[in-house]
Amino acid sequence: MTFDEKQVDTCSVCGSEVTEPGDRKSHHDDKTIKELITRMNRIEGQIRGIKGMIERHVYCDDILNQISSAQSALDGASRLLLEKHMKSCIKERLQRDDDQVVDEVLKTIFRMIR
Questions:
Q1: What is the pTM of this model?
Q2: What is the DSSP letter of 71?
Q3: 103/11 Cα distance (integer angstroms)
Q4: Alpha carbon distance 94, 88 (integer Å)
Q5: How far apart are CA 22 and CA 42, in angstroms?
């Protein structure tokens, strides 16, 4: 491959060309998508609540407890998504002998545990 050429891959979900990492799509089942959206909606509500607490000058310790709760909720959503990612996307790419995915998932995990 020359410097100007881009590697072209095919999306395992829709079969379309994938030239950039951001072009890839997940292929989680509807139950997983619904669960993730429900979690995100709950977290969004928590964040709005925290903002309201700050605006109302609520005691700092109470706000910090709510921030900790929101972070835990985000961590839970991350763990769920990582589990589904490992069991679908990563597994599929390894079956196609795409060993580069190991480095990708390791970078993601290391970023998550910082």
A1: 0.72
A2: H
A3: 19
A4: 10
A5: 26
